[in-house]
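Model it.
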Amino acid sequence: MKKYALNDITFMQYVFLLHGAQIGVGLISLPSMLGEIAGMDGWITLIISWAISLGVSLLIISTMKKHPEDTIYDLLPRYFGKVAGTGLNVIFILYFLYAFYITFTTSVFIINLQQLPKTPNYLIVLLFALPLYTVARSHIRVIGRYAELTYWLFIWLLLLYMYPIRDAVWVNLLPVLREGWVPVLQGLKMTVFSFLGFETAFILYPFLKHKEMAVKGIVIANSMTLIIYLIIVLVCFLFFSPDDIANIKYPTIKVLKVIEFRFFERFDVIILLGYIIMLSRIWIIYVYYSVFGSSQLLGKQDHRSHLRIVVLVLVVLSFFYSPTSRQITLLDKGLSRFGFFTAYLFPVLLWIVVSLRRRFSKGAVQ
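Modeled.
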């Protein structure tokens, strides 16, 4: 009997869970960071980053195909021994927990800065904590439905975001490669981490009902993320001048202020709230993977007790600690370094270990 048969997810849920784990808070500052490093050729950097993340994603699927009923938490003790495997599992649990905390805290900071500047930080945390717990206490199938629902409910906001293109200055993008390939490649240090989230395939694969669709699904999910990033970045590049884009901290939000109609003003409020709801997918996905791992580590089937502890600590911490913009930037850089190991380096190493072990075991049998 399949270990996770009762929580099978459909192909579409698999795609939206992967995609939902990738679209994060870094989206609001991505155009300015790209403009500062790679200039107006930053869209090329995004495409190269997509290709890199897709290559590593395919290695993850290749590894998981050899053990279709196991998550990464089952796999690591098998190949690295109980002690080392448990240690690596703890690293993955901490990574997912850290990613959850960064995305959640940054979302609270954005709402506090843009919409509720006089509201205490802990009240916004309490406001978000209740729906977070309500969805995350369920199993992966319910979270997959939530990820799919929120995508279809708010994808129209992306079309609305393209409204400023009517004032686009297309010459901003010309000439292509005006500074050569060096700035484009330097931008990879930052943009490859914008695609973090594909590593969650380590958890999702055994839940996928039709595993033969895993490769197709992860290609679609990464490509959906690339399309959204390209639209956001190109809209900002076409609206702001090359000199301005690098000096605007949150260009993704600032460009929203020009969206205005006779029958409705402040569309930026609607788009920002929709964006926060879409961000809730990444909080829920990452916190679920962390408490799912910790419960598996302790031999428990129910992850809800661990989730309660995480949410309680989060709420209590908000009464005493409210990170500044600079601290959030530092925490985000820490996530990038952490993500380099868990999402890019480790999957390659694990694929090599699994391939060599299986090759040698077959040779021994022969």
